[in-house]
Amino acid sequence: MSTPAMQPVITPSDSHSKSVTIRVGTRKSALALKQADYVVSSLSKLHPDVNFEIVGMHSAADKDKVTALYNFGGKGLWTNELEAGLMARELDIIVHSLKDMPTSLPDGCVLACVPEREDPRDVVVVKKALEGRYNSLADLPAGSVVGTSSVRRMAQIRRRYPALEFRDMRGNIDTRLKKLDAEDSDYSVLILAAAGLSRMGLLGRVTQYLDSTTEGGGMLHAVGQGGLGIEARADDEQTLRLLKALESNEVMLAAEAERSVMRTLEGGCSIPIGVETRWVGDNRLRLAATVVSVDGTQAADDALEQEVKTREQAVEFGEEVARRLTENGAQKILDVINAERAANPSTEKWVPA
Ligand SMILES: NCc1[nH]cc(CCC(=O)O)c1CC(=O)O
User: Fold this and answer.
1) Mean pLDDT of the chain
2) Which residue has the higher pLDDT, 284 or 344?
3) Pathway listed for it (predicted)?
4) What class has domain 122-210?
C-alpha cells in the first residue's frame, strides 16, 4: 500500500502541457536580458514542447561597483553566483556574453553551446555635440579624450594614435552614452562593442567600425566578443542535447581557438589580448592576435592560417598562436602588466575586456 505522496507524478497527456522546464540564468542588465530572451526564443522554436523560464540574478560585481573589478579575481567576474545556482540545480543553463566567460570553467560546468555570433568588432561612438565633425579615430585632434576602461582597447589605440588621451568609462551601455554626451563631459569618443549596441538597437550611433586594417584603426577585438556562451552542467545530457541544435559549428570552433590563445597565455589572469578570426576557405581558419603594452610602445603580433575541423584542432591552433606570440615578445609585456597588478590590486583601473 502506498500513500498518495509516494505515487509517481503523472503528467496529463494534454498536448498543450510542456513536460520539461529549463530554467535559464542570466544577469539582470538590459543587455544580458536581451541576450537571454534571444536564446529562449531561439530554443523555443527548436523545441516547442519545452518550457523555458528566465531567472535574473544580480552578480557580486553588479552589487559592488565601487570595489575594483580585479578584487573579484578578474577571472569569472560575472559568473560565480550564477554557477552556484547551476550546480545547486536552481538553474539548468546560464546565458553569458562569451567574452565575459573565463577560459576555464569550474568542474562540473561546461560551455555547452555557442550560437551564431553578432558582429565581433569594436566601434567608435562620437559625442552627440561633435557628430558630423569627427567620425574616425584618425579625425581626432591631438589631446582628444577617448573613453574606455579596457586596457586592450586603450593599448591598441595608443599604439596607432599616440596623441590621443584616455579616460576611464564604466557602466552599462546607456550609462556610458549618457556620460559621453553630457554637456560638460571631456570625452570626444567612446569605444564599445558593436554587438552590445546592436542588441540594444543603438547601432545608429556608430561612426567607425574598428578592425585590423589601417582604415579600421588596426584594432583587434576581445576573445569571444559578439558571441554568446551557454553554460550547463557537464552531466545534464538531456539539456546538452537540446542546446546543440542552437550551436553554430563555425562560431564555436573560431571561439574555441580564440579562447585557447587566451588560456595558454594568461596563466590564471585575464590579460589584454586582441584577436580576429575569419574562415578563409575549406575549413581553414585565419587567426590574428596581438598583445600590446599599456603605453602602446611594445607589441607582439601574429597571424596564422590552419585547417580546423574539430574542437581539439581549434584548441591546438590557439596554443600554437600563443606560442608564437610568446616568442614575439608577448611574455615580457604580460609580465610587466601582471607585476603592476600584483603590486596594486586595489587601485586597478582598467578592465580586461
Ligand atoms: N565589457 C562588457 C561587455 N560584455 C559584453 C559586452 C557586449 C559585447 C559582447 O557581447 O561581446 C560588453 C560591452 C562592451 O564591451 O562594449
Assistant:
1) 89
2) 284
3) Porphyrin-containing compound metabolism; protoporphyrin-IX biosynthesis; coproporphyrinogen-III from 5-aminolevulinate: step 2/4
4) alpha beta
Residue pLDDT, tens place only, 107-136: 899 999 999 999 999 999 999 999 999 999
Q: Which atom of ligand 1 is nearest to the CA of 194?
A: 8
Quote the percentage of the chain above a pLDDT of 70: 86
What pLDDT digit, counting tens, does each position of 259-269 carry?
999 999 986 56
Is 100 annotated as catalytic?
Answer: yes
Closest CA to 223 of 109, 104, 137: 104
**DSSP reduced 3-state for 20:** strand
pLDDT > 80? residue 233:
yes
Give the distance (Å) from ligand 1 centre to CA of residue 173.
9
Question: Where in the chain are all domains bearing CATH 3.40.190.10?
Answer: 20-115+227-247, 122-210
19 Cα–ligand 1 center, Å: 35
Would you tell me how many other CB atoms lie within 10 Å of the CB of residue 136?
Answer: 16
Residues 6+ apart with CB under 8 A from 233: 86, 87, 89, 92, 108, 109, 110, 239
Q: Which CATH superfamily is domain 20-115+227-247 in?
A: Periplasmic binding protein-like II (3.40.190.10)
Say if ligand 1 is within 6 A of residue 79 CB.
no
